[in-house]
């Protein structure tokens, strides 16, 4: 017996066989019919659709024998798949390849074999055969040969149709599963939306309202029914719309949640609203709108209390500091060294306390809207120079150089000059505090967003991790509690900066990463024409 060599493209052929998804599947009528036809046309007792696997042949359809498979080395079909047309063995007894084959010497006592390869795919790889076998020697007539080849083509067509049907079914199953999953998550989303007391607006990048959900408290979005398809500029009050569009742009650019708070009069009552805007796609965002009137009332009461206490503390504290200073400078006679040291410590701490109180009072005035800005065209190079000059002493003491950069943008900003210097001073004193000795702090101006001018204070200090960027602008927020002792500070400076900048209609921001220094910036609106507030 001489086993057949492997097919020249055996790996690809086995892959094509696996892709056909036929091996070890139950019988199917469309293949059974063809083997019956082949047996009838050829007049043979046995006919098979045999698939030649790596080490076996497996019968997808069979008539005339009982087994499902045999080893590949004894398979006639392993020879037939190497042939292009019909592979015929007229008498196995006289063929040295098959004379001692166990199927020839034993059951089913094969003498005659005729097989046509089943070739699939663009590469026409033979995955098996359609074959007819007899127990006596013989040969097929030309008509029988032609019929076997036609039937083999039909088997291949059936395999392809079956595969397409399987693929469609798998796709359908997947679609059904996805639809079911979508239904569940949609239902969950609807439940969440219904449970959420907030109002919601989905907006496109240009501010067009795509969708909205009324809150349980209708006061939050009074005209919500008419909003879809409109721009927020046309359906929100002007100040809210302006701030909303600004924050929308920032939320989409930075992929962070932007928060906005404002007060409105609804049905004659003051209503505080909080908007949280978050990107919900590359070109759209979701704004959650919540009534925070009660919370704000509480906060205002607390702020007013703190302000009153601070105010009441300031006068006696100023006088304590003055008296300590007089004592320290020997106005009432020289002090013993130990007493002098005590007086100095008391005076420094009184000064720190005064600093905190002044910051608290400043912030209180800002949040109560009691700070009157005197808006005038302000020349950027002039404020940069003034701010640098006023901080020179602190910089020299810290061994830090403050460098004022070129001012490439000429347009003046519409601002309160003293407040801009206060903002710059706060940022500069932080930058100097956090800078290593011998390093520099840069003060510069560049073009900002929405036609605004951006003022930047850049240092080479420790930098701030991204997750703290928004929080450093909150009241009393210090990244490292020991900083206030080491470097001094109240944790209110940046909160004041933010309030002052926003009072100007501007925005604040921070670019920083640990180990790469910090760049604090704020943007102020440029003057338009006559210098009125934009
Ligand atoms: P403080 O008076 O404590 O400086 P701020 O509100 O000005 O309060 O700053 C809040 C916190 O932000 C600081 O305590 C510090 O942790 C961090 N911070 C501010 N500026 C810088 C900076 N330039 N480099 C590193 N950290 C800074």
From TrEMBL:
PROSITE patterns linked: HIS_KIN
Any Pfam family: HATPase_c
Class in the EC hierarchy, top level: transferase
Domain of life, source organism: Bacteria
Membrane topology: Multi-pass membrane protein
Segments traversing the membrane: none
Claim: Kinase is one of the keywords in the record: yes
InterPro entries listed in its UniProt record: GAF, GAF-like_dom_sf, HATPase_C_sf, HATPase_dom, His_kinase_dom, HisK_dim/P_dom, HisK_dim/P_sf, PAS-like_dom_sf
Keywords: ATP-binding, Cell membrane, Kinase, Membrane, Nucleotide-binding, Phosphoprotein, Transferase, Two-component regulatory system
One cellular-component annotation, GO: plasma membrane
Keyword check for Cell membrane: yes
Catalyzed chemical reaction(s): ATP + protein L-histidine = ADP + protein N-phospho-L-histidine
SUPFAM superfamilies listed in its UniProt record: ATPase domain of HSP90 chaperone/DNA topoisomerase II/histidine kinase, GAF domain-like, Homodimeric domain of signal transducing histidine kinase, PYP-like sensor domain (PAS domain)
Localization (cell): Cell membrane; Membrane raft
MF annotations from Gene Ontology: ATP binding; histidine phosphotransfer kinase activity; phosphorelay sensor kinase activity
Domain named Histidine kinase: residues: 308-528
Protein name, entry field: histidine kinase
CDD domains linked: HATPase_EvgS-ArcB-TorS-like (cd16922), HisKA (cd00082)
Catalytic activity, EC: 2.7.13.3
């Amino acid at each position: 017996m001489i086993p057949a060599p492997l097919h020249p493209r055996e790996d690809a052929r086995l892959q094509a066989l696996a892709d056909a998804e036929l091996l070890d599947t139950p019988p199917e009528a469309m293949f059974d019919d063809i083997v019956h036809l082949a047996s009838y046309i050829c007049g043979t007792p046995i006919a098979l659709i045999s698939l030649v696997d790596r080490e076996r042949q497996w019968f997808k359809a069979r008539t005339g024998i009982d087994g499902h498979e045999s080893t590949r080395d004894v398979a006639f079909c392993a020879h037939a798949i190497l042939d292009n047309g019909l592979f015929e063995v007229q008498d196995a007894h006289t063929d040295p390849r098959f004379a001692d084959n166990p199927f020839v010497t034993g059951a089913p006592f094969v003498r005659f074999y005729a097989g046509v390869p089943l070739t699939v795919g663009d590469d026409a790889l033979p995955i098996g055969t359609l074959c007819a076998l007899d127990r006596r020697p013989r040969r097929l007539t030309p008509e029988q040969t032609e019929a076997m080849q036609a039937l083999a083509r039909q088997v291949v067509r059936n395999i392809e149709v079956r595969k397409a049907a399987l693929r469609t079914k798998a796709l359908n199953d997947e679609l059904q599963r996805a639809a079911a999953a979508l239904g569940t998550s949609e239902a969950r989303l609807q439940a969440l939306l219904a449970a959420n007391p907030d109002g919601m607006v989905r907006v496109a990048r240009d501010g067009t309202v795509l969708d909205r959900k009324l809150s349980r408290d209708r006061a939050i979005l009074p005209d919500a029914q008419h909003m879809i398809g409109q721009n927020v500029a046309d359906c929100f009050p002007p100040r809210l719309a302006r701030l909303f569009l600004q924050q929308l742009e920032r939320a989409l650019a930075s992929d962070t949640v932007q928060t906005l708070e404002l007060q409105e009069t609804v049905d004659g009552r003051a209503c505080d609203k909080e908007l949280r805007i978050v990107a919900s796609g590359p070109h759209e965002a979701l704004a959650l709108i919540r009534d925070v009137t009660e919370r704000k009332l509480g906060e205002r009461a607390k702020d007013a209390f703190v302000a009153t206490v601070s105010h009441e503390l300031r006068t006696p504290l100023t006088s304590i500091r003055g008296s300590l200073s007089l004592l320290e400078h020997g106005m009432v006679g020289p002090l013993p060294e130990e007493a002098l040291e005590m007086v100095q410590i008391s005076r420094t701490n009184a000064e720190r306390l005064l600093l905190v109180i002044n910051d608290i009072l400043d912030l209180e005035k800002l949040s109560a809207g009691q700070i009157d800005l005197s808006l005038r065209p302000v020349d950027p190079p002039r404020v940069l120079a003034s701010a640098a000059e006023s901080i020179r002493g602190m910089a020299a003491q810290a061994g830090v150089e403050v460098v004022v950069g070129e001012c490439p943008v000429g347009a003046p900003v519409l601002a309160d000059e003293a407040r801009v210097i206060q903002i710059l001073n706060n940022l500069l004193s932080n930058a100097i505090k956090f800078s290593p000795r011998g390093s520099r702090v840069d003060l510069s101006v560049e073009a900002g967003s929405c036609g605004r001018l951006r003022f930047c204070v850049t240092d080479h200090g420790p930098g701030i991790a991204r997750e703290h960027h928004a929080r450093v602008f909150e009241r009393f927020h210090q990244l490292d509690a020991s900083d206030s002792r080491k470097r001094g500070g109240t944790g209110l400076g940046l909160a004041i900066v933010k309030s002052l900048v926003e009072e100007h209609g501007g925005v604040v921001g921070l670019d920083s990463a640990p180990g790469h220094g910090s760049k604090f910036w704020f943007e102020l609106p440029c003057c338009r024409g006559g210098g009125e507030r934009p």
